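User: I'll paste a sequence; please echo it back and then give the predicted structure.

Assistant: Echoing your sequence first, then the prediction.
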Amino acid sequence: MTRRRSRSFASFLCSTLSAAVGRNGYYVACSWVLVEAGYGSAAVATFLAIVCAIELLASPLVGLIADRFDRRRLNILADLGRFAAVSGTACALVYFETLFTISLSAGFFAFCDRIALTTSQALIPAVTRRRSLATANSLVFFVMQCGNLAAALLVGALLGERPPAAAFAVLSVFFFLSAFLMIPVQPESLPASNVGLDEAPKSRGDPILLRLSTIYAFLYASAILVSVMGSSFVFIEQGGSAADFGRLEAAWSAGAIVGAALLIRTGRTARARALNLSILTATAAALMMLKLLNVPWTLLVFLALGTLYNLGRVNVEVELQESVPDGSLGQAKGIMHSVGVALGLLVFGMAAIAGEDLHPSTVFLAFGVALVIGVLILTAYPGRRPGEKEQEER
């Protein structure tokens, strides 16, 4: 039984790795192809807006679906949907305009992608029973970050030597492989009571879910801010080159891998709420420091930001899985992600409005101040269910 459970979890990790390569590769390839075709940053912004809008609208519905149907089968169907979207993009690029093809592809891919991510993360407690949730989630996020890094390297090599259609064709194979690897995964049965289905309608007002959604939103928005303002920070404010921007991205990616790896062996030794607030405070301090530093110190800051981001993501996911019944975990995850995407879109819009009127470091400083205010509010907010003692010690 133990050996079968280990094989099931190993297959789940392999599926996650393959999907991460395909997913990150798709987004990198789309952005690169749009710029290379001469559409510029406006087209990339439009592409990202389509993806975010689909995620914002679909997340609650996808979460509800994930709680009503078999999550493993939904994940396999979503992977096959992503395979169809990416392989279809490869074929369409040969015959149709690039911007039209990518925009059409983005909508369908984003919907399938949200199903795949929600069901995959909601499956973690079921495929890792009798294993530390902190360790299991850290392993999953570590594998995902390794896949993201591998995707960046793969796409760079593919687009440098092959036409875009060939790159998308190769990336589509990773989703087919991910679906195939998910077949042997055997989630353990949910508790017979499955109380989550009855409690799902109440989850929107759950104080713990509200607190976790707020923390998740701040973390998600900080990552969006780095993605949107990172290139301007390097090229305009720091006077750097493309190589400097590559080093910044590498620093963030390395930090994200470190953040996911930190809890693999140790698990959580700090109280969940205290750790979340500490991570947000450290993130705020790091963002505000960018106003004062130059290369190479800024690379250390982005390394720290990547570490804090994934450390916070893992901690939030674990606390969510421990606080929400299995039967309503998908819906809770959908609500939490919608809040994160909404704040991310707000940050994206504010950065677009600011344009070149504000230095990127000033935008980082302002968001750092907003994080400090958010931490003060979260410190005063009890974040516990009525009549329930807050379970901080895990």
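The longest helix spans residues 2-36. The CA atoms of residues 53 and 175 lie 23 Å apart.
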